[in-house]
# Entry
Amino acid sequence: MKLTKENAEQYLLQMYQIRAFEEQAEKSYMAGKIHGTMHLSIGQEASAVGSISTLEPTDFIIGHHRGHGLCISKGADLNLMMAEFYGKENGYCRGRGGSMHIADIAGGNLGANGVVGGGIPLAVGIGIGLKMQAENRVLLAFFGDGAASTGAFHESMILAVLYQVPVVFICENNQYAMSFAANDWTTSKKIAAHGEIYGMAESCSTDGNDLLEVQSAVEAAVKRAREGGGPSLIVNDTYRWRGHSKSDRNRYRTKEEIEDWKKKDPIVKFRKHVVAKKILTEKEAETIKEQAYADIEAARIFAEASPEPDVATLEEGVYAP
Amino acid sequence: MREITYLEAIREAMTQEMERDSRVFLIGEDIGEYGGAFQVTYGMLEKFGPERILDTPITELGLTGAATGAALIGMRPIAEIMFMDFTTLASEQLVNQAAKLRFMFGGQSKVPMVLRTPAGSGTGAAEHHSQSFENWFVHVPGLKVVMPTTPYDVKGLLVSAIRDDNPVVFIEHKLLYKTKGDVPEELYEIPLGKADVKREGKDLTIVATAIMVQRSLQAAEELAKEGIDIEVVDPRTLRPLDTETIVNSVKKTGKVLIVHEAVKTGGFGGELAGIIAESEAFGYLDAPILRLAGREVPIPYNRNLEYNSVPQVENIVEKARELANLRV
# Structure
């Protein structure tokens, strides 16, 4: 895809919105405004924005539990997202799903998933449906390196190839499945190799902190899927700066390792690139950053002012009428 | 009316619904050329082609998730799990995903799918091919659970299940597949959540599920010779449950025996007993609510041991006679 000024603005804005959303999420949690837990993708923004920037608005995504970035990349309304994070009635899921289950069905986001690997079999079925509906739509199915160990992943790869579904499977390899390091069979190349083993047309790894490299790989896979060429598997190698969830004490990795990865900040990398290429000025880039943080502050205010669900409605929505 | 088997009635319901609605498709193991392990889908591949009869490798989790995902974007899949025992492998997608997607997305979506699966013992298939897990799924808000017992019911209930906008676990008993009955050729619906009084009586009520409905009806004929008049109620759908029909029957007879094949502990009978005890029928009871259910063992291979693992007609006769004669 050509990197126009308009595109560069959008990608930078979305990456900053993701960063700002998650920093705000953390602050709200620490302030005791949120209960439960959350899984932050700070440091992984280029994987989400780079991948989803290749889609048409009518295409679909399905996500995983670390999915705030995916929602924003697919064009979620930040107010409704933050309201959901706060468990409010006017959130995307009426406060029933929270951080781990944000979905925007009308916007083509078929939902985040609380079970590691749980969304991958769904992706195969969505692919089967899309193929039957024959409207040339595709699905990006996101999961993490932890999910690549599950039976759900392996069964789904087999079915996806068998039915030649228009799905691009994207593994966001952030190096750790909770505390289990991706240093054995789950290393990037080994996950990607499954695409070849199971007979996909293409599988590869990318520098997941390089938005343009991610975009280029996913763009080719999306095109192939749309033209009936079947599924692909792409592994975006990246890193989560924060712990797995709020219970994480970071016992399994060193401060030095985290600091090393922070030097590879995907937002800084992209910003430096577009400034160096004179697509954006430093001032324009800074204005975009300020805009993103202002958007999230507005979303926070919206969410905090939003109504709580009425307990009288508790049992609504379990069954379709 | 024309007589066909329970198995043929299932095939006819699926075939006619697929002819009527292009969103309906089948997915499952060996459902194509093989015709399914019990031949339920025999001939459907020839009729509809591999685009709508999706034969899968052995991937219970994967195929159940695939059905769920397809339903999420507006298709109406029917998944077949070859034996109910293997729903253990499919449960993550069924229980965590299919059942919850609508609620946890705040009502944005629906999951109109059917998961068909044969349950029950009596075929000598031993521990891994004989179980009745209906109550595991009854326990999950978001799922519907149907257990039809006659050829007429199975067709009408399956049509309703396919047209329902929720995930439906549709449990077929293997020993019923070859039973025959009157079934209309045209499409018809039997609403989910509506019980059926299979035999009217005044002395006591038997609430039974699956093959136990047939056995209870036989037991009722035996006891009629002794002057004991038994009413047999078939819930047909366990979730949602037609409590009204059950409660009314118990109010009428004052005595109730619950019969199911699944193991008694944690079985659906406990739920039924609880519902009756909490209802206005309690005041009408002339005796304790009794349960007759599967023994507390896995289903064994040996013919005689297998036979004795679950209620048989003579056990129902004995228990019902005991209850009929009980005065508290």
Remarks:
- The first helix of chain B runs from residue 6 to 20.
